Task: structure prediction
Amino acid sequence: MPRRIGIPKIRPKIYLAEHREALGLTQKQLADKLGAAEMTVSRWERGENLLNTEGLATVAFALWGKNGQPEDLFYPPGERTPNQVFRGLSNDARDAAMKMIKGLDRE
Result:
């Protein structure tokens, strides 16, 4: 019988506490915005509980409104995400980047 290989659980770092603090919010204030318990926010920040994709989107919306992107939580405050860099490009630069990316798929 083949040996089972365990897949390690990866716990990606999210910068929830740093973003919350940068916005001047307490854990309780963020919890109230989310309709969650303060202890839940604390556990997310300590990495004891993980947020699923929907949870990340909900937290991003609570922090930044409609402009919030879940991926922003994976970067420290003030650091631009790849998506933000891409959105900041001119239309011509964006088109050139997309053309190059699509070309990689053919290789």
Remarks:
- The chain is about 55% helix and 0% strand.
- The first helix runs from residue 16 to 22.
